[in-house]
Specification:
127 residues; mainly alpha; 5 helices; 72% helix; 0% strand; elongated
Length: 127
């Protein structure tokens, strides 16, 4: 039971820290939380840092797999053949870059509510 609680808390803290790191671009947050947690519980600190490493490794692995899949798709189904490219008309018009996606207020509120729910203190056996 205690192990479940430890893993759940460490995972929630890791998720929150990594989300904050992405939003703020401050990569020191993980170290700061690790130090704070470690001052009271070395066990939780180790579980937290392990959870962070696991999530980062998963992200890198998924990115690599997605890149490889995209490369295979490009090799397997070229959008235009070499002959078609030679025959294509060249147009020298500047293209406009698409506007970056904006997050609506309701989406932002939903994300903040989810974060609030994750950081509420929990007790063993309760969810």
């Amino acid at each position: 039971m205690a192990d479940e609680y430890l893993e759940r808390v460490a995972g929630e803290l890791a998720d929150l820290a990594l989300a904050d790191e992405r939003r703020s671009a401050d990569n020191r947050i993980v170290d700061e939380i690790g130090e704070i947690v470690g001052a009271s519980s070395q066990t939780l600190q180790e579980a937290f840092l392990t959870a962070v490493r696991v999530r980062r490794a998963e992200t890198r692995a998924r990115q690599l797999l997605a890149e490889r899949a995209a490369e295979q798709m490009n090799k397997a189904t070229p959008l235009i053949s070499q002959d078609e490219a030679a025959d294509a008309e060249v147009v020298d018009e500047p293209s406009e870059a698409p506007a970056p996606a904006q997050q609506s207020d309701s989406e932002t509120e939903a994300v903040m509510e989810e974060i609030d729910n994750l950081i509420k203190p929990t007790r063993p056996g309760r969810r």
